[in-house]
Write a structure and sequence with these properties.
Elements: E1 21-22, H1 23-30, H2 34-43, E2 50-51, E3 57-59, H3 61-76, H4 81-89, H5 91-96, H6 100-103, H7 109-129
Antiparallel strand pairs: 1-3, 2-3
Length: 130
């Protein structure tokens, strides 16, 4: 279940929406493996869950929102981790002068098709001459 941007995913565990969540609860709710969440903590300085005794992680609602945003950027919008990190920090708008909407604008399908047709023709010629 991927939440809409800014929404916290629905947790069906009887806890308050503002409750702290374990890494297992967050991983299950968002469909992201736990080791990926741990890796993202290293890659995204703003993702800092609370750590209690024994290193057990507890994610606040704002952490869960950030994870959902990272997931959307990386797995749905096609960002690299570096690009997602820049998008979250706001650097992409400063460096390129583009807004989020224009930075995520899809390329023209006609242009993509024309490039693919050209590549296919080049490959066909190469195979024919081989």
């Amino acid at each position: 279940m991927t939440p809409v941007d800014g929404d916290i995913p629905f947790f069906d565990d009887g806890k308050s929406p503002d409750a702290l969540r374990t890494i297992g609860e967050v991983a299950k709710a968002l469909g992201i493996r736990q080791h990926v969440l741990r890796y993202w903590e290293e890659q995204f300085p703003t993702l800092k869950p609370l750590k209690r005794s024994g290193g057990r992680r507890y994610y606040r609602p704002e952490d869960v929102k950030l994870i959902a945003r990272i997931d959307r950027l990386v797995h749905h919008d096609g960002y690299t981790l570096r690009g997602a990190r820049q998008a979250i920090s706001g650097k992409d708008r400063v460096e390129t002068g583009k807004s989020d909407a224009s930075a995520q604008a899809a390329p023209n399908p006609a242009e993509i098709r024309a490039k693919l047709v050209s590549i296919r023709e080049s490959l066909a010629k190469a195979l024919a001459s081989a």
